[in-house]
Every structure is written in structure tokens, then in C-alpha cells.
Amino acid sequence: MRWFWVDRFTEYVAGSHATGMKGVSLSDELVHDHWDIYPTMPNTLIAEGMAQTAGLLVSELYQFQELVVLAKFTKLTFSGLARPGDALRYEARIGRTVDAGAQCTVTGTVLGSGGRPDRPQAEAEIFFARVGSDAPESIAGTKPARLFDPAMLVRWLHTTGVFTVGVRADGERMKPQDYGLPVKV
């Protein structure tokens, strides 16, 4: 993945839920490309941030060993604009899981500042498909590869704070070696 739309995680409970944060900055080039005289974060990128927050949870269900891809948004609504200076909070929760993948519910909230209250920004239900090692071969005759190089994944998980705030279902801290990932970044 080339672009990351989650700056950090403030909560991460493996197999259950996660909270990710994204600061909208005037220095982000893409906020100027949406409407040139009224910079906003495009709703498509907010949806991507929601998907990255939930997709990481789903990928962890499979020990980061299988390719997990966004299959579809079964619901997606927006309630306003996110502008430079706003902080977005993405709250993802795993719902139903089946052999083919998992459904997640995600909300996006613009955090209030200067006495303003928090306000809803977006709601989504997202289904992630599991394309694992037991997946059928493609037309080209090859099985799908991992989405991330393991070392790159560990760097991203450290950078966003997953290993700082993340806990497994038993309450123990998440560690790269729990998933067969390299320890050093």
C-alpha cells in the first residue's frame, strides 16, 4: 500500500475493535485538489482511512499471513466535510466473520475543538474478502501474494502505534513475533 490514511492508533484489541486517528492538514496536497478555493479532505480518502483501520483488524484475524482485500462497502454515508485542522477518529469493530472474509462496522467522527462538540462524519459497513493460501490459482496460474512485505508491515504497525496500544484477546500486548513477523524494523 502506498498511501496511509491513518496516522496512529489509540486503541487496538485483536479480533474485536480498533480506533485510528487522522489529522487533516493544510500541507496535505490532496485537500487542495478537491476544491481549489475550499480545501477539504475528499470523502473517498475518509472512506479509505476507515477501510485501512478495519482492514488491519481483519488481516490480524488471519495472523497477517493472508491477503485480505476490500470487497465492498455494503453501506457508506457521509455527514459533512473534514477540513484542515480537523482530527478524524475512525472506530472499527469486527462483526460477522465467514470463511470468505469478515464484515466490519466503522464510524468516522470529526473531533471537536475550541469548545465545539464532536460531530459524526461517516458511517460504513465494509466486507473484506480473504484471499488466503488455500485460495484457487488465478488465471495466470499463480496464487496471490501478501499485500505487505513483512518488514514493511512491522514498520507501519510500529509507526502507527499498534504495538504500543494493541492487545490480544487474552489481554497480553501484541508483538511482531506473535505473527511470525520480523522483530526489528
Automatic annotation (TrEMBL):
Keywords from UniProt, A to Z, are: Lyase
Instruction: Quote any Pfam family the record assigns.
Output: FabA
One GO molecular function term of this record is:
(3R)-hydroxyacyl-[acyl-carrier-protein] dehydratase activity
- Stated EC number for the protein is 4.2.1.59
InterPro entries named among the record's database cross-references: FabA_FabZ, HotDog_dom_sf
Q: What is this protein called?
A: 3-hydroxyacyl-[acyl-carrier-protein] dehydratase FabZ
